[in-house]
Specification:
This protein has one domain: Ribonuclease Z/Hydroxyacylglutathione hydrolase-like (Metallo-beta-lactamase, Chain A, 4-Layer Sandwich). About 20% of the residues lie in helices and about 35% in strands. It is built from 6 helices and 17 strands. Strands 7, 8, 9, 10, 11, 12, 15 and 16 form an 8-stranded mixed sheet that branches. Strands 6-5-4-3-2-1-17 form a 7-stranded mixed sheet.
Length: about 240
C-alpha cells in the first residue's frame, strides 16, 4: 500500500508550498488509486489524478466541496455525510456503514464515528491492504471506540489544526472542534501505535516555524514511544 499526501492544509486562508492544497490522501494498492476527501481547492483539478474511487470523512467545504460539480468515479460516504451533500451533482453514490469493513478497489475501509462537528458529522477510517493498516482522521475531538479503531494500526494519521492548545468547544451537550496533536500522540501511546503523521495543518504549522514545532513534537512523541512527522503536500509513503 502506498500513501500520497495530496494536500495537507486545513480550513485556513494562509498557504505555503508545503501546505498549499486542502487535506486529501491518495491510497494506492496494486493498480487502484482511492482518494480520501476532496475539498474546495480540488474543484476542477482532482480529475487529472484519475482516482478509481473517492471516500469522504465528512461534508465540510475543505473535505467535500471539490465534488460540487460531480465526479467521474464512484463516491463513498456515510449516510450523515450524504444527507449534507444533496446539492452536489454526484451520480454514482455508495453508502459506507460505520463499523462495517467495506472493500473499495481492493482496499478495506472501516469507518469509526468521531466527534468533530454537529452540522457535518465525521468519521475516521481504518484503511487496510495487504499487511498494512493505518488510521486516517483529519478532523476530530475524539474517536468513539478508540481501542478498536487503533488496534494493530501501524500509523495514525491525524489532525494538525492545533499543536498544543485545545480547540474544543461545547455546544449544547456536544463537543466540537479539534484536539491538539499532543493529545493525539497520547492516544497513540495508550493504544500502542508506533508511528504518527500530522496532516490537516493549521496556522501554527503553516505560518509558524515548522522546523521548531516539528522538533518539539518529536520530543513529545518520543516520550510516548511514538515516531512522529508532519506531512507536506506531495509526501509519499510505502507500507
Amino acid at each position: 500500500m502506498k500513501l500520497t499526501f495530496l494536500g495537507t492544509r486545513g480550513e485556513i486562508e494562509k498557504r505555503t508550498r508545503r501546505h498549499r492544497m486542502h487535506t486529501s490522501l491518495m491510497v494506492s494498492y496494486r493498480d487502484a488509486d482511492v482518494m480520501i476527501d476532496c475539498g474546495l481547492d480540488w474543484l476542477g483539478k482532482f480529475e487529472r489524478l484519475h482516482p478509481k474511487a473517492i471516500v469522504l470523512t465528512h461534508a465540510h467545504p475543505d473535505h467535500a466541496w471539490g465534488l460540487r460539480n460531480g465526479a467521474p468515479c464512484p463516491v463513498h460516504a456515510p449516510q450523515k455525510t450524504w444527507q449534507s451533500l444533496t446539492r452536489c451533482r454526484i451520480e454514482d453514490r455508495h453508502l459506507i456503514k460505520e463499523r462495517t469493513p467495506t472493500k473499495i478497489c481492493g482496499i478495506t475501509f472501516e469507518a469509526f464515528s468521531v466527534e468533530h462537528s454537529i452540522l457535518a458529522p465525521a468519521v475516521g477510517y481504518r484503511v487496510s491492504a495487504g499487511r498494512a493498516s493505518v488510521f486516517y482522521v483529519p478532523d476530530l475531538v475524539f474517536i468513539h471506540d478508540r481501542a478498536a479503531a487503533l488496534k494493530n494500526v501501524q500509523i495514525y494519521i491525524g489532525d494538525g489544526a492545533t499543536v498544543m492548545r485545545s480547540f474544543i468547544r461545547r455546544r449544547d451537550k456536544a463537543l466540537i472542534g479539534h484536539s491538539p496533536v499532543r493529545t493525539q500522540l497520547t492516544w497513540c501511546e495508550k493504544e500502542g501505535v508506533p508511528q504518527a503523521i500530522v496532516t490537516h495543518c493549521g496556522s501554527e504549522i503553516v505560518t509558524g516555524d515548522e522546523d521548531k514545532l516539528s522538533a518539539k513534537l518529536r520530543v513529545i512523541a518520543s516520550e510516548r514511544g511514538v515516531d512522529m512527522r508532519i506531512a507536506y503536500d506531495g509526501m509519499k509513503l510505502k507500507l
